[in-house]
Every structure is written in structure tokens, then in C-alpha cells.
Amino acid sequence: MTTARERILRYYKGTEGEAVSVQLVDLAEQAMRTQKFRLTPFLDPYGVEIAETVAASYDGLTVQYDGGYQGAERQRAMFTHDAFGGRPSFDIAVIKAEWKSDFCYLTHRDVLGALMGLGIERDTLGDILVASGTARILTTKQMADYLLSNLTQIGAAAVHCEADELSAIAPREERTKEITATVASLRVDSIAAAGFGMSRSRAAADIEADKLKLNWQSVKNASVTVGEGDILSLRGRGRVEVVEVRGKTKKGRVGISLKRYI
């Protein structure tokens, strides 16, 4: 009889989630063995899905999530044994970096690049919220002190960093746009073209450049088939959800309903 560990690792073997699944199973089993809790690094939405699968595979284990503010995309998971009665912290902090916006325009990619340049691992970072002249960086409490001491420049801009309050971050309000379209097929390049308002050749080029993800995994082939409930995300363009596949028209095209998150 196969164990929960074997089933999970076999399912994710060879996928982008393989390494994360191993890490999460290890943490879950530590929580089970000690009858306490274990906290994960920051997870992307695909990692959160894996954490759900892991928690559901072990009797007596629950999982909770927190990204530091309501609507956070990147979150930490906490596996907790049912026998544990404590209320542990998710150990999330926020650092506010400021620069003179009159002289320099910085993007999310600029901020992330500067952080990676300091040798910081991506899984120690949550969401990065960039506005005019400021960026709020969600991170672990352990990493916050390092950022305060070492993040002094982003791109060409000198920056000043200070600790901020999580309560100062407004909840994420996602704007959506309903899209009704017909496509030649349910190929991922066709759906991406309809959802993001571009040609299929441009969608295929974005797939080739690894800019497009399906359910937070890289798309290896433009001919992959998409179904209801699937999520397409395009770097710099947001996300599209396939809400409904309505069937074929008289001309043989497929009617679809999409929701674009702007």
C-alpha cells in the first residue's frame, strides 16, 4: 500500500511542482511527527494548490495561509497538527523602499531584480507592491533586517528603506473584465489571444519566451488544450480565467466566456 508521501511525490514528479512538493511534504510530516506546526516559505498560487493537496492527504493536519494582507498572491502556508493548541505567527514583515520618483521610474521587475542581486531567495519574498516613488516588499521577519541594511539602490535610483506596518497595506481590489468570444479551438494560444487581445502568433511567441503560464505552470506547447476553470497568466498583462466553454457555433467555432483580471 502506498503512503501519502509516495502518492503526492509521484503525482508531481517531472512537473514544475516537484521540488516544492518534496519540501511541503517534509514540512507536513514534521508537523505530524512533532504534533506542532511548520511554516513554509512564500508560495506562488501553484504552490498554494500543492499545499492544499498535501494537507488533505494527512489525517489530523490542517493548513492556513497568510500573505501579509488581504488578497495577497504569494502566501506562506502553516501546517498545524490538530493536537496543537497554540497560535503561532506567520512571521511576515513589510519593508517600504522610497526613491525620488521625479527622476526615476521603477517597475516591479526593477525591484525584484535588485533583491535577486543581493542574493535573496525568491521564496523569502512575498508580494512586491510598487507605486510612484515607493515599493512595499513583503518578506519574512528574518529577512527584513537584512533588507533594511543592504537594499540601498534599485536600478539607478538610491533608495531609503524603513520598516512599515502590514495594516498600512490596502486590501487588493481586483478589477475584472468579462469577455465573450469565439475561437477556432481550445488551444492555449487561441484562448490567450482572445483573453489578452492579441494575435495567435504573438501568443505563440510569448509561449516560446516562457511568458505565458497555464495554472501557474510553464506552457511547453501552443497546442495544449484549455478547459473550464483554467487560469492563464501572462507576464506584465495579468490573468485570464476560462469561465465557460459554451459549445460550437454553426461555423464550427467554439464559444467561450472569459474573465480577465486587470
Which series of helices and strands comes N to C?
HHEHEEEHEEHEEEEHHEEEEE
The assigned structural class equals alpha+beta
In the CATH scheme, the class of the largest domain would be: Alpha Beta
Determine Rg (CA atoms, Å): 21 Å
The figure for the number of domains is 3
Strand content: 25-35%
* Largest sheet composition: 6 strands, antiparallel
Q: Termini distance?
A: 47 Å
Could you please describe the fold and organization of this structure?
The structure is a single chain. The chain contains seven helices and 15 strands. The protein is of the alpha+beta class and 262 residues long. The protein has three domains: 78 residues, Ribosomal Protein S8, Chain: A, domain 1; 77 residues, Alpha-Beta Plaits (2-Layer Sandwich); 86 residues, Structural Genomics Hypothetical 15.5 Kd Protein In mrcA-pckA Intergenic Region, Chain A (Roll). The chain starts with a helix and ends with a strand. One of its GO terms (molecular function) is RNA binding. This is RNA-binding protein YlmH, contains S4-like domain. Keywords: RNA-binding. It comes from Schwartzia succinivorans DSM 10502.
